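Intended use. Records such as the UMP-CMP kinase entry shown here are meant for training and evaluating sequence-to-structure methods. They are not intended to support clinical decisions.
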Amino acid sequence: MLSRLFGSQRVPSFLYRVSLIMKPQVVFVLGGPGAGKGTQCSKIVEGYNYTHLSAGDLLREERAREGSECGQLIANYIKEGKIVPVEITINLLKQAMEETMQKDEKKFRFLIDGFPRNEDNLQGWNTVMDGKADVKFVLFFDCGEEVCIDRCLERGKSSGRTDDNRESLEKRIQTYLQSTRPIIELYEKHGKVRTVDASRCVEEVSKCQRWCP
Ligand code: ADP
Ligand code: C5P
Ligand code: MG
């Protein structure tokens, strides 16, 4: 399936050509829903030459795009707290990375937030991005479930998100525990996880500087 979708490009993609000069350097950012991934990524971007790409934001944009063939599917998955098939997500991420580097070739460092969230995400990344990007490490915002839920419910008062409600959150937490934690553990086995105690206040968390090279 994946090779059918991605493996038969006749013209080398821009990402491939630019990666011969400067390979994208990637930090995966993981943690429970509401752990503060987006908040901390914004802080990192202020101080370091990273571009923040949130898989969730890209999916929400695609959901809202007029004429999108997968908008309805994305909407259903998000509401149910399930992980969208990687064929969709990896294309959005790859396209966003290419656009960023096309605009400015010095922008080759990426914080990829909320990805890879399950085995399917990881396989899709390995299939499509193998040799085309270097994954430096996983930045893991570690935060208890109750704190995560409270933060999302608070965010839900103004976010307009269809999944910042208790019913969706219970499903998102299950997905996180069952599908995302094993991915973090896998990277941990390879010594590639930098863990941050994300339960503290925003300023304390950002002082941690675990993303420094
Ligand atoms: P994520 O991207 O991991 O889902 P966000 O960065 O969107 O999380 O944060 C979720 C909510 O919690 C937001 O409303 C944000 O303002 C708030 N928040 C983020 N980090 C903290 C923190 N350390 N302490 C308290 N609230 C936080
Ligand atoms: O990271 P964020 O909280 O914005 O993700 C919201 C939702 O987007 C997830 O609960 C999931 O339904 C979807 N998503 C996904 N695959 C990803 C990232 C997010 O399906 N890699
Ligand atoms: Mg987020």
